[in-house]
């Protein structure tokens, strides 16, 4: 089986926010879909390693903020690259509101929010699957929803290209790029050989 086939499933991206007692938290999730119509039901799958999962198991209530292509990498870092065990993720953020259930949602860089109440949970091993009924929701903008593919292609920074090793000619300053200076190399500027080159 080619594992890469899974990468061709299309997803959106969301901030899943929760609250337990006085603690607010949330994380980025892609695994969200509407799974029933009457009543409307959503499915959300969350890694059991995430604090958000633990909190949701206890509280049974969440908000989903539907991210648009305006969301920047800082937002993904804030909610997706650190745990609420080590950070207060909402601290210092603008564009935050609380919905009727008392939970935060993002009112900027989003095109909608939805509130959910968990009605079923299923332990999938690595992840918990939450089935929820929708208790509230609002369209916030007409921005384009951010797909996982868009995040990978246009938001996530590209890794810096590996820096090539380079050698400088001590006579004229010409820089040769490559793992080694070949034995028969002749500097194209001053015509000195390999011995004139030192690592740059
Ligand atoms: C683009 C992106 C998509 C993600 N999708 C999911 C997901 O679908 N389910 C999930 O459990 N975690 C997902 N994560 C990882 C969590 O957001 C991340 O582990 C987060 O730090 C957990 O924080 P917490 O411990 O405060 O809950 C995703 C992260 C990124 C950056």
Principal-axes geometry comes out as elongated
CATH class of the largest domain: Mainly Beta
Heteromolecules bound: flavin mononucleotide
Mean pLDDT: 96
The major pleated sheet works out as: 7 strands, antiparallel
Poorly predicted runs: none
The neighbouring-strand order within the major sheet is 2-1-5-8-9-4-3
Number of strands: 12
How large is the share of residues in beta strands? 35-45%
Structural class: mainly beta
**Total discrete domains:** 2
What is the helix fraction of residues, given as a range? 10-25%
* Tally of individual helices: 3
The separation of the N and C termini measures 46 Å
Order of helices and strands: EEEEHEHEEEEHEEE
What oligomeric state best describes the polypeptide chains here?
single chain
Determine the CATH topology of the largest domain: Pnp Oxidase, Chain A
Instruction: Give the radius of gyration.
Output: 25 Å
**What would CATH call the homologous superfamily of the largest domain?**
Electron Transport, Fmn-binding Protein, Chain A
Name the CATH architecture of the largest domain.
Roll
Brief characterization of the structure:
12% of the residues lie in helices and 39% in strands. It has 3 helices and 12 strands.
Labels describing this entry:
200 residues, mainly beta, Pnp Oxidase, Chain A, Rubrerythrin, domain 2, 2 domains, seven-stranded antiparallel β-sheet, three-stranded antiparallel β-sheet, 39% strand, elongated
């Amino acid at each position: 089986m080619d594992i890469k086939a899974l990468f061709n499933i299309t997803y959106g991206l969301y901030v899943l926010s929760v609250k337990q007692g006085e603690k607010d938290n949330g994380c980025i999730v892609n695994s969200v879909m509407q799974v029933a119509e009457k009543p409307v039901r959503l499915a959300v799958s969350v890694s059991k390693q995430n604090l958000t999962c633990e909190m949701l198991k206890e509280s049974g209530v969440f908000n989903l903020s539907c991210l648009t292509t305006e969301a920047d990498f800082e937002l993904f870092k804030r909610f997706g690259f650190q745990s609420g065990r080590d950070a207060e993720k909402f601290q210092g953020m603008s564009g935050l509101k609380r919905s009727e259930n008392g939970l935060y949602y993002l009112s900027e860089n989003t095109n909608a929010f939805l509130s959910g109440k968990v009605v079923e949970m299923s332990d999938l091993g690595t992840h918990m699957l939450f089935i929820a009924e929708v208790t509230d929701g609002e369209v916030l903008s007409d921005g384009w929803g951010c797909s996982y593919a868009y995040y990978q292609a246009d938001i996530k920074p590209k890794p810096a290209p590996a820096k090539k090793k380079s050698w400088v000619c001590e006579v004229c300053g010409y820089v040769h790029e490559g793992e080694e200076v070949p034995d028969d190399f002749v500097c194209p500027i001053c015509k000195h050989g390999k011995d004139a080159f030192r690592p740059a």
